[in-house]
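Structure, all two chains, one model.
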Amino acid sequence: VASAVDDLIQLLDLEQIEVNIFRGAQPKEVNLDLQRVFGGQVAGQALVAAARTVEPDRAVHSLHAYFLRPGDVSIPILYDVDHIRDGSSFTTRRVVAIQHGRAIFNLQASFQIEESGFEHALPMPDVPDPETLQSVEQRWIDAGLGLDPPERGVDIRHVEDPIFSDAASPPRFRQHVWIRAKAPLPDDPILHTCALVYASDLTMMDTTLLPHGRSHHGTNVQMASLDHAMWFHRPFRADEWLLYVVQTPSASGARGFAEGKIFDRSGHLVVSVVQEGLIRPRR
Amino acid sequence: VASAVDDLIQLLDLEQIEVNIFRGAQPKEVNLDLQRVFGGQVAGQALVAAARTVEPDRAVHSLHAYFLRPGDVSIPILYDVDHIRDGSSFTTRRVVAIQHGRAIFNLQASFQIEESGFEHALPMPDVPDPETLQSVEQRWIDAGLGLDPPERGVDIRHVEDPIFSDAASPPRFRQHVWIRAKAPLPDDPILHTCALVYASDLTMMDTTLLPHGRSHHGTNVQMASLDHAMWFHRPFRADEWLLYVVQTPSASGARGFAEGKIFDRSGHLVVSVVQEGLIRPRR
């Protein structure tokens, strides 16, 4: 468990090649069968690269990214940072992730000095505590899925049962999942943010298939994240339990659309997430 | 009325300077008191520039943008388009809007060939028909706001009354607004899309102040759009009535966060919008 978290921390610790150029490693134990890089890894590493070029008194408050091409797990990823704005209150960075001479991912992120002002927030829905719920690993074993879930250093506990929908499932449009890093993380706010960026790519697209009795385990759907956007409303720790509520307002044109809200355990809304992905029925 | 719509159509008809470089004009009757370019104009023009470089069999399905610096209404805006991906199913463009040698706006947009697949959508809320509601112009006059609303070629009819909140208003977190172009638009899907991009910047940030008894009419709040993201789920016409439902899940750090859903008159969910803006209390 600790080693999976160490791997995550190492993934998010980029090598600085030049002032605005960083290199991100691949996981130590690469699953070459997956053949492509996990989207959350690229998004998390890209945000680390952006943050390394920003004064530490400015915190990231939003990011917007597109996944452009599948990442190659057999080589590192280069992150090229562009300083598109250095303003008095806001700093904006663009980051292109590059492999084999081509962009695989493009991120924009905005950072802000600390300010205060109007405060309001959605309330957290009432759900069972994470301690009362089984881990996603146990769920996979119980469901006889016949393969281990990806070991990612993130503890994931689904509120709803079953996790995935099949032809017999009534349509659902929302799911609730508790998540946290499997071991404590160092006290670096950027690391907690980027760890959550990493984890936030895990359950969005599954939600868009819940209404249709399909899941990504089937061989009958081609799935890929298309974009990823996050807004960081309030501080949080990624090694404490966070409730990830995801709903899917729409699917059309072989694309699924999902909106997530992340609450800390005391009920504060800390992050909003929006993602669209390809969910293409295979013939 | 027709001339305001003609102005909008002309604003969205860019001059091509080179293969990937376009120039956008300013409105004929510039309100120099406003001093900065309306965000919806830059977003709409930038998407026109992107679309001009994409094969017409590919339709835009999403965009993500940041507003970086105030636009200068006294000179044109240059749009520089980067072909970051030309894929078999998806095409992605980055567009930087430039004035005085500096980026004022950065957009990414993704286009897709026509595909079909899973279908689901949020239902439209039940609200009064637009014909039963007063125009925003009449509302401003009735409210004694003492100035004309900006003439933008967009007919805007608020469901709720009053439009803006003040110290006596109970907190509200959602509003419903009917919108459409004030006159018919030519049958070009890109024009309808970009006209809606233009209009979609009009009511998002106001919603974030509804819970706080303030509005942008007050001199006590500094407001500016920070980002803008849209997902185009289904085809629509911008010259037919569209219901724009906006809610505000959060405000914090002098920023307001708003989520919009746009339905056509038959109740189809056609577009999702997310925007964060600066809402800084003035001392």
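Chain A has a mean pLDDT of 92.
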